[in-house]
Design a protein that fits this description.
The chain is α+β, with helices and mostly antiparallel strands and 569 residues long. The protein has helices spanning 34-37, 54-69, 78-96, 185-188, 193-201, 206-219, 241-248, 305-319, 351-357, 363-382, 414-417, 437-440, 447-463, 478-483, 498-507, 519-527, 540-543, 545-568, and strands at 6-14, 23-28, 40-46, 109-115, 118-124, 128-133, 136-139, 145-147, 153-155, 168-173, 179-183, 226-235, 262-263, 266-274, 278-285, 291-297, 341-344, 348-350, 385-386, 395-398, 403-405, 412-413. It is built from 18 helices and 22 strands. Strand 8 (145-147) and strand 9 (153-155) form a beta hairpin.
Length: 569
Amino acid sequence: MITQLKVSLGQSSDKGIKERNEDFYGAYIPEDSTLENKGIACAIADGMGSCANAQEASEHCVKSFLNDYFSTPETWTVKTSGAKVLTAINNWLLSNGNKDHANGMVTTFSAIVFKSTTAHIFHIGDSRIYRFRNGDLELLTTDHRVWISDEKNYLSRAMGIDSHLDIDYKTLAIEENDVFLMTTDGIHDYLADQQLKEHLKADSAIEVKADRIVKHALDLKSHDNVTCQIVKIENLPSQDANEIYNELTRLPFPPHLGPGMTMDGYEILEEVHASTTSQLYKVRDVESNELFMMKTPSVNFSDDPAYIERFYMEEWAGKRIQSDAVLKIIEQTRQRNFLYFIMEYIDGITLKQWSGENPSPDFERVIDIINKIIKGLRVFHRLEMLHRDLKPENIMITNHGVVKIIDFGSVKIAGIQEISTPVERIELLGTKNYTAPEYLLGMEGSNRSDIYSLGVLVYNLLTGHLPYGDKMSRDLNWRTLNKIKYEPSFKHNPMIPMWMDGAIHKAVKKDQRLRYDTFSEFLFDLTHPKESFMGHSAPLLERNPTLFWKIASGVLLLGNLGWLIAFIS
């Protein structure tokens, strides 16, 4: 049986000698698939006592973080989700608190997100997070507190102080039986590490330990609110390869399908495409009579868990992308008895077919197509996904001129990469000559990797050729890469202006650091002459062969005439 991440939780808080409790704490443990995709979150905050709205600030921070973090896309990393949520919370504190310090909304904040086998820590202020493992207590956070004297100090960083939010973020691997202790300064300013350690080692329930730590701080005459949370890791997600394989293969691969056959209420009309990795069928829903596309896995990979996981992930990713520029994955209401997924039916042709029918396309039409592809890619990137296999075959143009990205088989999802698995995740390299060189070199890609593929698409649509020819092989290395040279697009299509070629060249730079950082920059330079691209960056023979030979012929003619005149005279 596959085990899930499981924790036990102990919490305790007291206002102490103060009139009200300005500390706040909370935790959220999902009970559905969110547990795997987003994890478990615990947070603690200590409102700054010198502010009139300290209690409201700490409460808002904790509640908003626990609500909003779990509302962020499952495709985002924990770091991205946490940072965006905390930035929004900080802006809210600043806008709702008065500018004068006494009526501001200022609080410390510390949180742990346990996702898969990793703890993600967010911290600002002087609340603390400790880890207790094998009898050793380790402080994981740094107090953002400046001491003026032995008795006077102030917070150097906190929520609600400045619009520039500087959050400490770190990750660490977790193990079963790890214990994490979260405290406000009313606890750790009065209890030494050894005393905290003794409480955590005690043979008692975790809730009892939390109460005893709070009581001990009060007995030591703590002058502040006292709050602590204790989280113990009871179980980590299953790492047993056999269990994962059994889960992945619970649905059998479909048999070979042909026209007239019916499977799970879908009538097979025709096989549209078949490759070594999958089959694509045009199908009709028997109940609704609607047309769809069905993608089935290839039986060649029926015993390959990495392939099966990617097949599931392709459907999972597609369901989370909502855009007219991206193929829609259909949510099925009927029970599935085989492994496949259903997509919208697109009546149209691939970009490769369109390019074949339009060998000399109008520049404006090409830019329009690229602009629509960018619309779809932006959705991927906003969700922290990299497409990684952009090519003419993976883009369709409908009979009404709508452009759609249709394949997610190579998509890399940042949030999913944080989930550990015993299944070896093999990186798909994309398609030769369209995929970015860094992938072929075994390096990490980025948004600029998709920009590279987009640049190759532009080049190919305008010229019918590729910017580096057929030289981007899968056994590429740095030495061979340095020998491969860019061929100016106007060499194949003299109508392409130099500034447009400059934009394309920048998009397909072999070094991703030299490429465009955003689609908007690339699109702007494709449509607006840029002075820096107008220079003599390429020899005249490459920029305008016809003019070069005219000039060369003229020079030779003048030379011969001069020689003839000198000879006669």
